[in-house]
Specification:
The complex is a heterodimer of chains A (114) and B (644).
Chain A lengths: L18 E3 L9 H5 L5 E2 L9 E2 L10 H5 L8 E3 L8 E4 L5 E3 L15
Chain B lengths: L2 H8 L14 E11 L3 H12 L4 E4 L16 E2 L12 H4 L2 H6 L5 H21 L34 E2 L5 H11 L3 E3 L2 E8 L8 E8 L5 E11 L15 H4 L10 H8 L4 E2 L4 E3 L27 E2 L8 E2 L5 E2 L2 H5 L24 E2 L3 H6 L7 E3 L6 H14 L4 H9 L7 E5 L10 E3 L3 E2 L12 E3 L10 H21 L7 H16 L6 H15 L6 H16 L10 H26 L25 E7 L2 E7 L7 H8 L3
Helix pairs in contact in B: 2-6, 2-13, 5-13, 8-17, 11-12, 15-16, 15-17, 16-17
Classes of the chains: A mainly beta (114), B alpha+beta (644).
Bound molecules: flavin-adenine dinucleotide.
């Protein structure tokens, strides 16, 4: 485990991670910050760094931040529903059960929407 | 990264990133001022700008993605005027008599029924896709081969169009920009300005606050359009559920437009109407709205099966069992058309086929086994592609459902998505049901110079309605502005408002907006919820008044964002006063507006078949009444008031 200073911090509010941003891919352009109607995010003080998720509990999961991301195809930003909202499905032929977030998920379905 | 991770990583606390200036005052003058940049506000701004007037549009968020339709919509309803329709606008609004018992806004509904096709064509010209140009659905039962329009709900009558709604707000934003509309974004309108600061006098502008910098705005205008939609968080608030517990409207829709119009002296109606929310999905407590299996709205008319694959039957207009797919979307020869009546009563007759109402009983008897699933693989390719590929891909909130589910391996050709809600209200919570300002045919409120559109109008719902009434209100506001005198604002009123809005920054160790929000919601649950009596509502009124003069004065905010939320909750408090005033005034239960008064249990007595109106005069609540059909002749008035 990484050694680090232990801070005494209050409990986090729920939900806490409405969007997941990949620091490796994000180019820090802040278009997501500007696309959010609710000001959930705020720019990072460092230029070209990932934005700060300041008000996660105010996110209403419209995903406009994902819509406007210029590097979304490289998975820079994803909507991350809280666990309580990850739904289940069943394969009709086999009766097998699935869920978003399950271990060993099936292969992605790459068909685009209409 | 969140502020804590930032602290741990850099050793520095995360500071506010926008320049703060609570002392700055920005003054703007225009002909037409539009408050709220959702769909109705954008349309009002565009309509007024096309008349050559100077338009300012004030939006709390960002115009490109704000409002209930900010991330998309899938249905363009209320469109009997489209070229493939087989009914007239007059036929189309008849369900308002049947399902709403006349307690409806016939002005807004009729304008929409007449104008929504022209309005949709304007959106198409702005760049939004409305037709199946690529012939993906060629030959489908729901496609009109000539116009390539795709229909929903009723494939025979064809009044509701499936659209590519994720493109709507970006198209409106672009058009506002092209027309030179002055868009003032991240700015919350806080109050309306009356001439001489007198309640009820002509509205001559508004005040606002930048939600990032805290700067103060004064807008001076010849005409003003309200387009800030409906309040949320009146009966329920939780800090631990998504979107501040509201998905029927975004967190920015907090009833500011209601509170400011009330204080300006505008007359309201239907404010005593409330009903249970149908889905947990729209509270942030259940699963994502339309993001789980369903047979409703986005998912209509998807087959539903039980855990063993047995199909759940549907019922039609007269309660008859429907056992084939096609009849769910094509009325029988003796039925009139199918449609979705939002906020209507279903027990009078079924407006739209639905699952058998006694499903719970049937499950208890062992006829069906839970859980239920949306049987996408079991329906035709065209229907499946329309529901999961087009509708889920375009509806607000569900477009990421398409993305995330398919990435996680969900395949609609093979997989059935679980159904979570059987149409029961999970927590028994209430929401305001289509109350709002009452207007004449020009969509001008009872206060001169103040117009309204979209969900700010009483009984307004849906994008076709919001766009069509926005366009109509914008044209009338422009007409008014052309002939109006120069507006004169009261510096007294402006400085009073400045004093009011910044006061939560000055309190020490006061309470947070969240605690106030939860406290208010509890009062409304306890004293103006399911169980209404005169005594309970008297205590509720007392409690709200106490809160106003004690806890609300201790409200504390540390930055412009918190200040915005604090001001929103103060407006919710005002909305509670309005609701209580209306509820106290109706001394009879009324099943059409979901109003149950235990002291007057008889439903719908004849002498109470009327509107109750409320407004402020010299800061005193004034109760009045109006006949349900105050709107007069629909066709004559429509022709008289139509501006091209
Ligand atoms: C997920 C979802 C899907 C929907 N799908 C459909 C559909 O398929 N078909 C359909 O017909 N309808 C649909 N609706 C309903 C439809 O979106 C609304 O009825 C419509 O957007 C109402 O328009 P409006 O202009 O009145 O309000 P909104 O579009 O909500 O706009 C109100 C605007 O006012 C702004 N505002 C609020 N307060 C202030 C203030 N104080 N100062 C400045 N600005 C302020 C808000 O930020 C917002 O942008 C859907 C709604 C949701 C939530």
């Amino acid at each position: 485990m990484k050694e680090s200073k232990v801070y005494a911090l209050p409990n986090r509010i729920t939900p806490n991670q409405p969007v997941l941003i990949d620091v490796e891919v994000c180019i820090g352009c802040n278009l997501c910050v500007e696309a959010c109607p609710n000001d959930v995010m705020m720019p990072n003080p460092e230029k070209k760094e990932v934005p700060i998720i300041l008000y996660p509990e105010e996110c209403w999961y419209c995903a406009c931040c994902v819509m406007e991301c210029p590097v979304k195809d490289k998975n820079a930003i994803e909507v991350n529903w809280p666990m309580m909202q990850r739904v289940r499905w069943k394969r009709k032929e086999t009766g097998q059960h699935y869920r978003i977030g399950m271990p060993n998920p099936p292969a992605p379905n790459t068909k685009p929407p209409v | 990264m969140n502020p804590e991770e930032y602290l741990i990583e850099t050793g520095k606390p995360f500071e506010w990133q926008y320049p703060l200036d609570y002392n700055e005052v920005i003054e703007t003058e225009c002909d037409v001022l539009v408050l709220g940049g959702g769909v109705s506000g954008c349309f009002a701004a565009i309509a007024a700008a096309r008349k050559g007037l100077q338009v300012t549009l004030v939006e709390k968020g960002c115009v490109k993605h704000s409002g209930a339709a900010g991330s998309g919509v899938d249905h363009w309803m209320d469109c009997p005027s489209n070229p493939a329709s087989r009914i007239t606008p007059e036929d189309y609004i008849k369900p308002l008599d049947v399902h709403k018992g006349g307690y409806a806004n016939y002005i807004g509904s009729y304008i929409t029924a007449r104008d929504s096709w022209e309005t949709l064509r304007e959106l198409e010209e702005m760049g939004m896709k409305i037709r199946d140009e690529d012939d993906v659905f060629k030959g489908a039962d729901f496609r009109d081969e000539k116009s390539k329009l795709l229909f929903a709900y009723d494939y025979t009558t064809r009044h509701c169009i499936r659209i590519w709604g994720t493109q709507m707000k970006p198209a409106l934003f672009k058009e506002c920009k092209r027309l030179g509309v002055n868009m003032v974004e991240r700015t919350m309108a806080t109050d309306l300005l009356n001439e001489n600061g007198e309640q009820g006098a002509r509205v001559v502008g508004a005040t606002g606050m930048n939600v990032r910098t805290g700067a103060f705005h004064v807008f001076k205008a010849k005409a003003t359009v309200l387009a800030m939609a409906t309040p949320e968080r009146v009966w329920i608030f939780s800090t631990e559920h998504t979107g501040l517990v509201g998905r029927d409207g975004p967190p920015t829709n907090a009833g500011n437009g209601f509170a400011m119009a009330w204080k300006a002296g505008a007359e309201f109606v239907r404010m005593e109407a409330s009903s249970h929310e149908e889905w947990g999905g729209s509270t942030g407590i259940g699963t994502v709205m339309f993001g789980s299996g369903s047979n409703f709205a986005t998912w209509f008319p998807c087959s539903i099966v039980d855990a063993e694959g047995k199909e759940v039957p549907w019922i039609g207009k007269n309660g008859e069992i429907i056992d084939n797919f096609s009849r769910r979307a094509n009325p029988g020869p003796d039925d009139d058309f199918y449609c979705l009546v939002l906020g209507g009563k279903e027990d009078v007759s079924v407006a739209l086929p639905q699952l058998v109402p006694d499903l719970r009983e049937r499950i208890k008897k062992g006829e069906f086994k839970l859980p239920l699933y949306a049987d996408l693989p079991g329906i035709s390719e065209h229907e499946r592609r329309a529901i999961f590929g087009l509708m889920v891909g375009q509806e607000g909130h569900t477009w990421p459902v398409y993305r995330n589910l398919t990435r996680a391996g969900f395949d609609p050709d093979k997989d059935m998505l679980q159904v979570y809600e059987l149409g029961d209200a999970p927590l028994g919570w209430r929401r305001l049901r289509y109350g709002g300002v009452i207007t004449g045919w020009d969509l001008q409120t009872s206060v001169e110079g103040l117009f309204a559109a979209g969900q700010q109008l009483f009984d307004g719902m849906g994008v076709a309605h919001a766009c069509s009434t926005g366009r109509w209100a914008g044209r009338h506001a422009a007409e008014f502005a052309k002939n109006a005198d120069e507006p004169a604002i009261s510096t007294d009123q402006v400085s009073r408002e400045r004093q009011r809005i910044y006061s939560p920054l000055k309190t020490e160790q006061g309470i947070n907006w969240k605690e106030l929000a939860a406290g208010i919601a509890k009062v409304m649950q306890d004293y103006c919820g399911d169980t209404k009596t005169d005594e309970l509502m008297k205590i509720g009124t007392l409690a709200i008044d106490e809160i106003k003069h004690s806890e609300a004065t201790q409200l504390h905010a540390r930055n412009p964002h918190e200040l915005m939320r604090a001001l929103e909750i103060l407006d919710v408090l005002t909305v509670c006063e309005m609701i209580l005033a209306a509820c106290r005034a109706r001394k009879a239960s009324n099943s059409w507006i979901f109003f149950e008064h235990l002291d007057y249990p008889e439903n719908d007595p004849d002498d109470w078949r009327k509107w109750i109106t409320i407004k402020l005069e010299k800061n005193e609540e004034v109760v009045g009444e109006a006949p349900l059909d105050f709107y007069g002749s629909l066709t004559e008035n429509y022709e008289k008031y139509k501006i091209d």
